[in-house]
Amino acid sequence: MERDGEQLSARPALETEGLRFLHVTVGSLLATYGWYIVFSCIVLYVLFQKLSTRLRALRQRQLDRAAAPVEPDVVVKRQEALAAARLKMQEELNAQVEKHKEKLRQLEEERRRQKIEMWDSMQEGKSYKGSARKPQEDDSPGPSTSAAVPKRKPDRKPLRGGGYNPLSGDGGTCSWRPGRRGPPSGG
Fold this sequence. Notes:
- The chain is an all-alpha fold.
- Helices cover 67% and strands 0% of the residues.
């Protein structure tokens, strides 16, 4: 029986301690942020009122549109306009496809012509790469081998000096050598 009395007396003490903690926490929260909470509640109330009137008006408009009788001639005109727009876009697409096919056909013809020229130049004993890059003109009286060799421009400077060879290991300013492979030796 004494235990039951202890549990009953302990229970109200825990409840009052919890209520006291809640009172202190909520009180300090309201003391710190009370005005902010009041103003934010007012702003939320005003926003809710404005949005609710707009939503009611929007629903009313949707109901009015749904209840309005649909005129068949308006629907037919709308469908005809849609079909005309689709037909126009399809014609434009077909024109683009034809242009693309023609361009591909011309490129294929050009490649075929270049292959024939390369084969002919190989049969004559010429380099086919030089003639593929620059098509030969038919104005020249005969095939000349000097036209296939491109001439260097004299005003160009070489990138490096003539005696430089990076693989020789001498003459360079860099003398880096890899470090020793073993652990560092200390004394």
